[in-house]
Specification:
Blueprint (H helix, E strand, L loop, with lengths): L9 E6 L5 E6 L7 E3 L8 H4 L11 H8 L6
Parallel strand pairs: 1-3
Antiparallel strand pairs: 1-2
Length: about 70
């Protein structure tokens, strides 16, 4: 490998939505950082059978529904 062209590969902590944490190696952030997830396999409808709803944190879903309300969806 060429020297000084590859990103730093280090260990971080990933915090799931239910509060559990695990260690993984990544190029994201810096050594010892914590990545807090908003959506993970325990809370996303694609993985849990659609029993939960996604939070509309930015108002995008409601904005979309208002824009296309008259189309009969």
């Amino acid at each position: 490998m060429k020297a000084d062209i590859h990103p730093d590969y280090h260990t971080i902590t990933v915090k799931m939505t239910d509060g559990t944490e695990y260690q993984t190696r990544t190029t994201w952030g810096a050594e010892g950082d914590t990545m807090t997830l908003d959506i993970d396999p325990t809370s996303h409808p694609a993985w849990n059978g659609g029993s939960s709803r996604l939070m509309d944190t930015g108002g995008r879903v409601s904005k979309f529904k208002n824009k296309y309300a008259g189309l009969g969806f």
